[in-house]
Structure formats: C-alpha cells, structure tokens
Specification:
Number of strands: 17
Shape: globular
CATH superfamily of the largest domain: NAD(P)-binding Rossmann-like Domain
CATH class of the largest domain: Alpha Beta
Number of helices: 11
Largest sheet: 7 strands, parallel
Strand content: 15-25%
Strand order of the largest sheet: 3-2-1-4-5-9-14
Bound molecules: nicotinamide-adenine-dinucleotide
Helix content: 25-40%
Distance between the termini: 55 Å
Order of helices and strands: EHEEHEHEEEHEHEEHEEEHEEHEHHHE
Number of domains: 2
Length: about 375
C-alpha cells in the first residue's frame, strides 16, 4: 500500500509508520512539525518521506497526496487552552480541504482513516436507577468549584453509575471534542456520499514509550513521570478516581494498520478494554519507579474534562484486533524510556503555569 500519514512525525504517527514500513508498505508523512509536539526537527525513521506542510494549506495536501491510495489522518490541534478557532481551522477545515481534493478526482485515494478520540462522547453513558441509560450534560463549573465531581442524572438529578460507552451516541463537552466530531462528520458524510471508504478510530488515552514530554498538556503517564523525574509526586486532578482506559501506542498502531486495510467502514473505539482510575495509574508508575512518594489530590480540575471515559471495545475486538499490553508494562516501559532521555527540563511547569493562567485548570474551593 502507498500510505499518507498526516501528523506522521508525531507520537502515534511514527509508531504506525514504522509498523507499515516493516510490512513493506510505502509511507509519506505530511506534518508541519509544530510545537509543542516538536521543539526540534524529529529524526523520522528511515524510509519515511517527509513533506513538511500544513493541513490547512491546499497546496501542501497536493504535494503529499501524490500516488497515495490510503490516508491516515492523524494531524490535529489538541490542547486544553482556549484556542478554540485553531481547533476548528486545523481539525475541521483541514479535513474539508482533503475532501475537496478527493472530489476533484485527481488523486488515487480510495480510503480515509481518521484518528478521533473519546472526547467526542463528552460525559459518555451512565445508568440511573430510576431513568435507565442516560447521557449526562457537561458538568457545571459551580459544581466542580465545590468539589462535586460526579455528574447527576440529566432527567431526575439523582446519582448515576458510569457504564462502558459504545460508538452510538457522541455528545462532546469540550471545544476540542466538538472540533473532532465536526471532523468525523465530514469524513462520514462526504465519504459515504462520494464513495470513498472511511474508518473513524476513537482512541482511548494512548500511552507508551517515546511519548514526547514536550507536550505536557495531556497524557497522564507522561505528566506524572515528568514530575517524578523532578522528584515531585504525581498531582491528580479531581479526586483521582476518574476512570480511563489507557491503551498502548503499539496496540493503537496495529489498529491503524487494520483500518488502513480491510476493516469495514464505520466508527470504532480503540482501547485496552480495561478501566483504571487515574490514581491506579499514578500508583503503578510509583511502583515502577520504586518511589516512596504518594499521589496528591489538591482538588484541581480541568474545565471540559469528562469525569469518566470508559469505551466499549467489542466492535473492534469482533474484527480480530485485541490489545496486548497492560498498565504495568506501559508504566514500566515509559519510566525506563524517560530516564534515558537527555536534558529533561521544565516543560511540565510551563504547561501547568499556562493552564492555570488561562483558567483551564482551576482549584475547587
Ligand atoms: N495521544 C493520545 O492519547 C490520543 C488520544 C485520542 C486521540 N488522539 C488522536 O491521535 C492523533 C495523533 O495524536 P498524537 O498523540 O500522535 O499527537 P502528536 O502531537 O504527537 O502528533 C500530532 C502531529 O500532527 C502534527 N500537526 C499538528 N498540526 C498540524 C498541521 N496544521 N498540519 C500538519 N501537521 C500538523 C504535529 O506536528 C505532530 O507531529 C490526533 O488526531 C489525536 O486527536 C490521540
């Protein structure tokens, strides 16, 4: 296959590109090498052709599309800072430009695989004893300010229990999630209408060796490990009992390969199928690092975060894919890798300061 990976110089893109090359495929990368993911030119694996360009620029897409038959669209803007318009420019407009070019019929592309996220589910699915399955509204800032972390039932206001969320209902609670859903809807609508095969992959919290520590806005393992490398304890948002599904980047790369090949058109959750609390992750890392430190929960929260994000992975598993790595191995490998990196510096403090200054991270009263 001739594959174009947008954002292929990033964390998931490099791993997927390596796997594709190993299996004898040809890989072109379209990436603008933008900060914070890149603070210096990356050393791309040998064999990947880099087109340095921006998905917001038509001419850069033209240079990169060439003879490629399938596109893995990973490039996106993702952070928690209030750069709302950039989220839509890169994510939605960039994808719209790709489809404009595909419809002109001058490319060889027959399939588009889009990287999406659990953020499209917002608070996701819960069960209420009285009202059955419900999808809570975004959590109110006044409740978070009081340290009330769990969302109420949107019908009766009572307590609800988190459930695994399947692919059927997407209701984002952040501008980022909305921009990814806009991107998804473009791929689905235009792909369906114009006979271009499409697959949407909604990743859980992707972790693993080589996750760049330059971008400390998200990625709990990287944030905790970076603090630990500076002899500081992990500081957890909320009370640390948020449920997440941490999935290894190599498992995600294998799912990407399946999607580029024969996976039937549709949207699929890509995650390990095992839910862990964030405090579990922190403790697992502390064990891996043989550290005496303990996690701290000063009541900080991030506006727009979902309380729990627990994907149902049965649709993807039914196609034969399964996650192979677990939490212990991910934490151990990441800690080992981080310690081998030169010049670990203060990226973490920079990101933390910026998120507090812009009101993205706040402290409950
Ligand atoms: N890492 C995760 O936990 C996670 C979770 C859910 C979804 N995803 C999705 O996976 C995809 C890849 O994520 P990642 O973790 O590899 O991120 P990353 O930041 O490591 O890589 C993204 C790459 O996109 C490039 N890029 C950014 N803006 C661009 C633009 N305008 N034009 C061209 N290139 C641009 C960056 O330079 C970078 O190399 C994203 O679409 C993201 O939404 C990631």
């Amino acid at each position: 296959m001739k594959v174009l990976i947008t954002g292929g110089a990033g964390f998931i893109g490099q791993r997927t590109g390596q796997l594709l090359l190993k299996q004898g495929h040809q890989v072109t990368v379209l990436d603008n090498l933008s900060p914070p993911a890149h603070d210096r030119p990356p050393a791309l694996p040998a064999g990947m052709e880099l087109v340095e360009g921006d998905v917001r620029k038509r001419e850069d897409w033209v240079k990169a599309l060439k003879e490629n038959e399938v596109v893995l669209h990973l490039a996106d803007h993702h952070d928690y800072l209030p750069a709302f318009s950039k989220l839509f420019h890169v994510n939605a407009v960039g994808t719209a430009i790709l489809f404009e070019l595909l419809l002109e019929g001058k490319t060889a592309v027959r399939r588009v695989v889009l990287a999406s996220t659990m953020a499209v589910y917002g608070e996701g699915k819960y069960r209420c004893g009285k009202d059955g399955d419900v999808y809570p509204q975004p959590r109110r800032v006044d409740a978070l300010e009081r340290g009330v972390w769990d969302p109420p039932c949107p019908i009766c206001g009572g307590a609800v229990t988190p459930m695994v969320t399947d692919e059927s209902v997407a209701r984002p609670t952040s501008a980022y999630g909305l921009s990814k859903l806009a991107q998804e809807e473009l791929v689905r609508l235009l792909g369906e209408r114009h006979g271009i095969e499409w697959v949407i992959l909604r990743y859980g919290a992707v972790q693993g060796r080589a996750q760049p520590f330059q971008n400390a806005y998200y990625g709990a393992l990287r944030i905790f490990a970076l603090r630990l490398a500076h002899h500081q304890p992990p500081v957890l948002l909320e009370d640390g009992n948020q449920l997440r599904d941490f999935v290894d980047v190599d498992d995600v790369a294998r799912a990407n390969l399946a999607a580029l090949g024969e996976l039937p058109t549709g949207a699929y959750n890509v995650a390990s199928g095992r839910a862990h609390t964030v405090i579990d992750l922190a403790r697992t890392l502390l064990r891996a690092a043989d550290s005496e430190l303990t996690p701290e929960t000063p009541g900080r929260y991030r506006v727009g975060d979902a309380r729990h994000a627990v994907p149902d992975v049965s649709r993807l598993k039914a196609t034969g894919w399964d996650a192979q790595s677990g939490l212990e191995a991910m934490a151990r490998e990441y800690w080992q890798w981080l310690q081998e990196q030169p010049n670990l510096d203060t990226y973490f403090e920079g990101a933390e300061y910026l998120m507090e200054r812009t009101g993205t991270v706040r402290v409950a009263r």
